[in-house]
């Protein structure tokens, strides 16, 4: 093996992590792609076997290996099922970083990835511009015209992919970055809110609702200037160098010692933000800073459930079901807290769906790059949703919200899709209206 190949091997999964898998197979039923395909190589156990073969130089990083690793949603459901504590999420991210170091993707793919990961997600100015174009695309009626024309259906799965594009919500949330919002009543907590990247454009109202709910719960909410994309999508895509730059920038922007907690309302981001200490463990200038940062990170559900919740809520008379966001349930082990918050809302009836913690098929940009598999997974998820008879599907991740909204359009029964925080915000706004 050439020296360069040896260097590539060093970027793969850690040997200690590979050795933890005892190949018992308890992960199989928790894996969406295995449940769909029934193929060992598209299960966590099968993918780990392939990682071992690559690590031992018995298998090349070729098309077959790349296909099986790329088809993984990295939902981490297997981590919950695993009795041996195999850190599969970390392993598949390392395998993808290894692939990126080893192979050269087609020119078109490289250009798209360079634009999305290298420029768009990390640039507030670019996001504002893209958001403005998206807003005009919708507000002028052009989007409806394009969708109704049938033109997209002539271009393969482009129609499916275009339908997943989130709406642009003007005014964008960027205008609030750098501001501080006072607590309502006596201040008990001071928190920093990470607004995300795309969420500033497509989930501006959710971000505003998050700030209001935190204010209602006696929090002074600081939205630090100079914050940026968390790097989660970069990590999932194997682009670790770019993710490291973004992690360092966010650590520089936020001093954890000034806050009781650093809050995110996005489960996928939260997993990566809580793992900054792993990303930067070999960086002597940032390792300790990253540990301090990660210790203060909280999902908004996790934080609200840990304090004495403001109970001054009005009724929200709906039947709701809760969809566990993978990176909240499996990545952060936050399951009970969102349900507890929903159960605190007057008038709301919570009905559990079967397999609520099985991935909906969103998985970052998976529903775009692996659209066919994503839609198959979503179809099954919607069967479980519909079986509850719920009027509202509640989740804790914007990516899941986009995916579930697509599911409602395709196989649903007119359900509304909402974030836990949006339900709480509605309850607080309804107080005194009975």
Describe the fold and architecture.
The protein folds into 4 domains: 3-102, Orthogonal Bundle (Fumarate Reductase Iron-sulfur Protein, Chain B, domain 2); 107-163, no CATH class; 173-306, Rossmann fold, CATH 3.40.50; 319-430, 3-Layer(aba) Sandwich (Rossmann fold). Helix 19 (300-306) packs across helix 21 (336-343). The protein is globular, with a radius of gyration of 21 Å. By secondary structure, the protein is an alpha/beta fold. The protein has helices at residues 3-10, 15-20, 32-37, 44-55, 63-70, 77-81, 88-102, 107-120, 124-139, 142-149, 158-163, 199-202, 204-216, 232-236, 240-253, 267-274, 276-279, 287-296, 300-306, 326-329, 336-343, 366-369, 371-387, 398-411, 420-430; strands spanning 180-181, 189-193, 219-222, 261-264, 297-299, 319-322, 349-350, 392-395, 416-419. The protein starts with a helix and ends with a helix. The strands form 2 sheets. The chain has a 5-stranded mixed sheet. Strands 7-6-8-9 form a 4-stranded parallel sheet, with helices on both faces. The protein is built from 25 helices and 9 strands.
Q: Helices and strands in order, then pairings?
A:
Blueprint: H1 3-10, H2 15-20, H3 32-37, H4 44-55, H5 63-70, H6 77-81, H7 88-102, H8 107-120, H9 124-139, H10 142-149, H11 158-163, E1 180-181, E2 189-193, H12 199-202, H13 204-216, E3 219-222, H14 232-236, H15 240-253, E4 261-264, H16 267-274, H17 276-279, H18 287-296, E5 297-299, H19 300-306, E6 319-322, H20 326-329, H21 336-343, E7 349-350, H22 366-369, H23 371-387, E8 392-395, H24 398-411, E9 416-419, H25 420-430
Parallel strand pairs: 2-3, 2-4, 4-5, 6-7, 6-8, 8-9
Antiparallel strand pairs: 1-3
